[in-house]
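Title: Prediction job returns without error message
Component: structure pipeline
Severity: low
Priority: P3
Assignee: unassigned

Description:
Job completed but the reporter wants confirmation the result is attached to the right record. Sequence as submitted:
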Amino acid sequence: MTRHNLKPLSMLLCVLLTSCALMNNDDTPLKQIQSSDVVLPADLQLTSASWPQEQWWKSYRDPQLDALIDRAIKNSPTMALAHAKVQQARSDVQMIESGSNLKIYGTASIDQAHVSSNGYLGPFANDRPALGLTGPWYTEGIVGLGSTLDIDIWGEHRSRLEAGMGVQNARRLEASAVSLEISADTAQLYYALQTTTQLIALLEEQKRIESYALQGHEARAARGLESHAEAEAAKAHLLTVEQQISSARQQRVKHRESLRLIVGGGELPELKPVTLPVPSTGLPASLNYQLLARRPDLQAAHWYVKSSMSQIDAAKAAFYPKFDIKAFFGFDALHLDDLFNHSSQQINIVPGLYLPIFSGGQLEANLDKSRRQRDIMISQYNQAVLTAVRDVAVVGSEIESLHEEAELQQQKISAASFTANNATARYKRGLISRQAATSAGSQLVAERIRQLTLNGSIVSSDILLNKALGGGKAGK
């Protein structure tokens, strides 16, 4: 090709390259919260406690709980759904990854056509065997191999692949978050059931004390030693305890059925009463970037942000020219008898350049959509971080307060126990009535109920703290 012929081709190429669809400038994107922005209240007492282990519930040393959590994670439909989403994201990545790979396909076709005498193939409509023309009917055969290869010059495919891998990582971390949620919910229900069972036992003891007190008041009222008002007041106390027992039994049924649901249905094993554990979870000395790195939900949100940014890169690359290469090797003949002759061999190599000049606003809309999606992901991430910090601060403060209450309650238990023992001893010596001794015992049972409630709240808060701290390293 001469230089004279190259000049208009070069000019055309320059025009095409300068005629790309114009992308809009990006307005100021939202700022993503950094680890330095994770600040807990100054009055929150941080300890040197270590971070929770992956199977954090093992610290309670309760084989019954271990078995229930294992069963819940294994049988949960929510867990199965999370794993299915991970597999779907992996398939999406494989699909994107295959987009720029070399594709080879086999092709074969037969085309029987009647050539128009008035078309551009008019000469073939004549019957001239000497020239190889046996028109107007021809049966064309094509058989061979074709291939295509997309050249990712501007990184559009690479950016889409990175976006897909970001979603895959996010899905995997969401599965970890679901596992953490299930384990925490199972532990909460299990210890709520244990607490309620022990509460019913204490209330039954309280009922026996109140029943005896009522009998004593009724006997004294019958002998005219006191008014019937005392007996009625004692009866009211007994009825209150019976109401509490009924409510606790109903609560135990709710806890049991909720536990049955979360472990996947079926019969629950016989759960033996156990003493509530003494939690030892504390707040690690530093919570900044570690909290962001260990919470699977925060890591998932972070990956969604990264994926959205890669989508923006892909949307920008779509404004630039695309280049591919198509090739064909095979046989092509107007007569099937000649199809596999050496002279019927055909080779095509077709480099292609595709330049978006006017897309009707499609490329611009796609880029704007990608930017808005990024802002949504950043907003959701920021909110998730703030919520996580709030959860740690609230639960940490609550545990501090509960431990203070528990220490005071232990002092009250000691005082009530001393009073009850003293009253029993004085009754045995005939110094006070049995009614007075019984009243002291009732006060001790009431304080033990309060202590049980506090211990149950401490265990519940400890479970929530393990969950708020991520329950172990994210993504395992």
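Comment from assignee: result matches the submitted record. The beta strands are 103-114, 127-128, 133-134, 137-151, 322-333, 345-354.
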